[in-house]
Design goal:
Blueprint (H helix, E strand, L loop, with lengths): L12 E5 L7 H20 L6 H29 L1 E5 L2 E6 L5 E6 L3 E7 L2 H6 L1 E8 L5 E8 L1 H27 L4 H6 L1 H9 L1
Antiparallel strand pairs: 1-2, 2-3, 3-4, 5-6, 6-7
Length: about 190
């Protein structure tokens, strides 16, 4: 497995997601509609001296519309990534200009999801992540298997909180090896054992 250099030391990816495939249904339907109109136009255009130019113009318009209505949404879908790691939630979007946002698990305060009727049938939903900070609430639409992802994210947040609490306790109250030897109460306990 190739190591992602953008990950911190000791950080491993848990889940990498793209938006649900239902985001591509409308562009695919529009593409079929454009192709049907273009083929109908090719048949309807009467033959004559300008018919070649008209057919070429219709083909160019159809290609431009397909590129705009199909290729751009596919590229946007493909380049949008939601990644859960052991230390943060990473959001990456953008086809030409990339935008990224990282939310440390320690700053996440609430994880919830919403699923409408169609979302329940297709197995997707909206993930709502609340974090401490200036942006507050983040809504991620069209997340596949949103209940499972919500549970995984919640578990990662709880694991991070437990790790932080253990580290704080160890730094604050756990006696080091020398301190344990200096405490006379510990000596009495050891003699009794």
């Amino acid at each position: 497995m190739v190591h992602d250099r953008s990950l911190a030391a000791g950080e491993t990816p848990i889940e990498i997601l793209h938006p649900h495939w239902k985001t591509l249904v409308a562009p695919v339907v529009l593409t079929f509609l454009v192709v049907a109109v273009a083929l109908t136009g090719e048949v309807v255009i009467p033959s004559g001296k300008d018919s070649a130019v008209e057919r070429l113009a219709l083909a160019v318009v159809a290609i431009v519309l397909i590129m705009w209505w199909l290729m751009y949404p596919v590229l946007r879908w493909r380049t949008t990534r939601y990644e859960l790691t052991t230390k943060r939630l990473r959001l990456r979007t953008g086809v030409i200009v990339r935008d990224g946002r990282d939310i440390p698990l320690s700053r996440i305060t609430d994880v919830s999801f919403r699923k409408g009727v169609l979302d329940r049938l297709l197995g997707c939903g909206t993930l709502v992540v609340e974090s401490a900070g200036e942006h507050g609430e983040i809504t991620l639409n069209e997340i596949p298997h949103v209940e499972r992802v919500s549970g995984e994210l919640f578990q990662l947040v709880e694991d991070e909180r437990l790790r932080a609490a253990q580290a704080a306790q160890a730094a604050r109250g756990a006696p080091g090896p020398r301190a344990a030897l200096d405490d006379p109460g510990d000596w009495d306990d050891r003699r009794r054992r």
